[in-house]
Design goal:
alpha+beta, 6-stranded mixed β-sheet, two-stranded antiparallel sheet, 11 helices, 35% helix, globular
C-alpha cells in the first residue's frame, strides 16, 4: 500500500496531469449523490460501525453485463448488436481481478430529467489509498458506435428503458455503451433525479455565492426566467440551479463563456460542500433520508455506502477533487450535431484519472467512431 502511494506521488511530480476544468461541467449530479451519501450515512456510521466495510470487486465473469434475454428490451431502430456491444465483459479482454488497484473504485453517475432523459452523464473514481477523487463529464451528444438511428450516448438510457426494460434496462444499456468509450464498465452506478438538486440546497439551508455580474435571461418556451444581481447573494435551491445554468443573457454583453460558467458551478459546489460540513446539518437526517429514497437509485450496498461516507469525510478539501470533460475532436454539424470523441486523448485522460487497473488501457480497448 505504502509502495503504491509513494510511486503515485513520484509519478505526479514527474508528469504533468491533464488540465482541469477545460470545458463547462454541470456537476450537479455529483453534488447530489455525494451530498446524500455523505450526510445520510455519516451519522449511520456511528451506530452501525460494525457494518462498515469497503466493497469487494468481483471477477469479470461474476459481474458480466446482462445478456439480451436478461434485459427484456429492444433498442429502437437498432438490432441485436446494440444489446451485445461490450462483449459481455466489465474490463478489456485479458484484464483480470489481479490487475485491479487496491481500494480504487469507479462510478457511473446519471442525472435524470423528467424520469427518462439523461441530462447528465459522469464517470467518477475514488482512490482509497491516496484519498483522491476524479470526475469526468461525458458530453451528452457524444457519438457511439451503435445501430440505432440516434447514435448519441444520452439515447442509451431511454433506449434501454423501453419495452419493459425499466431503470435496470436503461442502466445496463448505458453501461454497455460507456464501455465502448472508456474500455471498462464502472463498478457502481448512482442515478439521481435532478429535482433533488433543488431539494438538497434547500435542505442545507441555502448557500451564499459571490455573483460577478448581473444575470438576466428569459426563455418562455422553457418557462425559464433568471434574474440574479451582482454581488454576494443568498441562494435557495431554485436560485442556485439558475445560477449554475446561466450562460446566455438577454443582453449579449452579459453572456458568459463556458469557462466562466464552469467557474460559477465550481463556486457553487464548494459552497454546498462547506455548508454540509457544519454539524447542524446532521440534525436534518430524516429530510435527507426522504430525498434519498425518492430521488436516488444506486446498486451500492448500505454497508459499502457507510464506508464511502467515511472515506469522503477524509478527503481534505475540494482540492482533492479533480474535474474533467471527455475530450472531443469535433462535431458532425447539422442536423445531428454529434460530438466526435478523441480516442487518443481519452485513453490518456482515463489512464491518469479513473482507470481502476494497474495496466494501461489502450485505444484498441475502445470502439469509437473516428471523425472523417
Amino acid at each position: 500500500m505504502n509502495k503504491r502511494k509513494e510511486e503515485q506521488r513520484n509519478e505526479n511530480q514527474n508528469k504533468k496531469i491533464l488540465p482541469k476544468n477545460k470545458r463547462s461541467l454541470f456537476i450537479k449530479t455529483f453534488l447530489i449523490s455525494v451530498t446524500v451519501i455523505l450526510v445520510l450515512f455519516i451519522s449511520g456510521a456511528v451506530i452501525l460501525k460494525g457494518m462498515v466495510k469497503p466493497p469487494a470487486i468481483a471477477q469479470n465473469n461474476e459481474q458480466n453485463i446482462p445478456t439480451f434475454e436478461d434485459s427484456a428490451f429492444l433498442p429502437p431502430s437498432g438490432d441485436e448488436r446494440d444489446i451485445s456491444i461490450g462483449g459481455g465483459l466489465n474490463a478489456p479482454e485479458g484484464f483480470t481481478i489481479a490487475d485491479r488497484k487496491e481500494q480504487f473504485y469507479t462510478f457511473l453517475i446519471i442525472g435524470l430529467d423528467k424520469g427518462i432523459n439523461t441530462d447528465t452523464i459522469m464517470l467518477a473514481s475514488y482512490d482509497g489509498i491516496l484519498k483522491e477523487a476524479n470526475i469526468i463529464s461525458v458530453p451528452r451528444d457524444s457519438m457511439v458506435n451503435v445501430k440505432r438511428k440516434v447514435k448519441k450516448i444520452n439515447a442509451a438510457y431511454p433506449a434501454g428503458t423501453l419495452n419493459g426494460g425499466g431503470l435496470e434496462g436503461g442502466i445496463n444499456q448505458l453501461k454497455r455503451e460507456i464501455k465502448t468509450i472508456i474500455g471498462f464498465v464502472p463498478d457502481f452506478y448512482v442515478c439521481v433525479d435532478l429535482d433533488a438538486f433543488v431539494k438538497i440546497i434547500d435542505a442545507v439551508g441555502g448557500v451564499n455565492i459571490n455573483v460577478r455580474s448581473d444575470m438576466n435571461y428569459d426563455d418562455p418556451t422553457q418557462n425559464l426566467h433568471i434574474d440574479i444581481k451582482k454581488g454576494e447573494q443568498p441562494m435557495d435551491g431554485e436560485k442556485a440551479l439558475k445560477f449554475a445554468r446561466y450562460r446566455k443573457g438577454n443582453d449579449p454583453r452579459t453572456t458568459i463563456t463556458d469557462y466562466q460558467r464552469m467557474e460559477n458551478q465550481q463556486a457553487l459546489v464548494k459552497a454546498v460542500l462547506n455548508k454540509l460540513l457544519k454539524p447542524s446539518n446532521l440534525l436534518k437526517i430524516p429530510e435527507f433520508i426522504k430525498i434519498f429514497n425518492e430521488y436516488v437509485y444506486s446498486d451500492i450496498k448500505p454497508e459499502n455506502m457507510l464506508w464511502f461516507a467515511e472515506q469522503l469525510n477524509k478527503i481534505k478539501g475540494t482540492e482533492a477533487l479533480s474535474t474533467y470533460t471527455m475530450p472531443t475532436s469535433g462535431t458532425s454539424g447539422p442536423p445531428k450535431y454529434y460530438e466526435y470523441l478523441d480516442e487518443t486523448a481519452i485513453v490518456e485522460l482515463i489512464n491518469k484519472t479513473i482507470n481502476p487497473y494497474k495496466k494501461d488501457i489502450s485505444t484498441r480497448d475502445l470502439d469509437i467512431i473516428v471523425e472523417d
